[in-house]
Amino acid sequence: MKDIRKHARKLMQGTCRVCPACDGRACAGEVPGMGGLGSGHSFMANYNALAAVRLNMRLIHEAVEPDTSVRLLGLTLSLPVLAAPIGGVSYNMAGAIPEADYIRSVIDGCKQAGTIGCTGDGVPEPIHQEAFAAIRDAGGHGIPFIKPWEDEELYRKLEGAVDTGAKVLGMDIDAAGLVTLRKQGRPVSPKTPEKLREIIEWCPVPFVLKGVMTPDEAKIARDVGAAGIVVSNHGGRVLDHTPGTAEVLPQISAAVRGELTVFVDGGVRTGEDVLKMLALGADAVLIGRPFSVAAVGGLAEGVGKYLEQLRLDFTRSLVLTGCRDVAAVGPHILFNGGGR
User: pTM score > 0.85 for this model?
Assistant: First the structure.
């Protein structure tokens, strides 16, 4: 991973400095790029909120070889980690590698490791075109996320996403304020509950809404028929000064847990971070920027190496908190979270 990160730093030419701690400080305000919007405080809040969560260590138990697998939305994953939907290599990553190479590395690397990658959408057209092609060539093993466009473009892209054979689709409603799209004359916008219900009822596979940051909107997502939500502030790239996702996750999860699948992203970097988010109420996590670094720096092999590192970290963390499997994770493993 050290070599992969070094190579990525060279190729990304300052759009990502591949910092030792990916916390948003060095890249604040760099949108387009890999940073957070404005002051960068939303990006930093994600990282800092999760870093503040602490784990109870327990070593008198029988959890020696934990089972890291999960089954979500009809998918069986080797660990509760998905690659978040990121695209736009040309303007967010200095054209470090071709868009097709980037997204195929994410999709194929995740598939080989037993988990799944999500794909992004945007301008220019190759972002979603290459994403759809990669998922189709992987036998439908990927989750395409479509932005909240106006109807003609929205349904055209949704139809293309269905044609890939993907078993789950999503919409990143948190992209509604992306300045990069407005600058390119392709604005996106929020959707009413009625419009979301129409989209979800049209979709032939489970549908996930990404960008839920409050319990009331989680309940709306449930009520309009979403199969899952992603607690996300779009990596701190659309609204400055939001709370970190780890801060709002417990309340959101409590509002809808058991009624739909709860994913979360934001500041997740290590296996310990994955464990923290599960203990705070998530069913699984999405990870963004570290997957981008791995894909740019090492293609599919780099993605595989990163997932291998995550699996080792996550397995060790399960052992050291006394969890025999993912289902055993709960607030009791958090310091001041109910542990005895």
Answer: yes
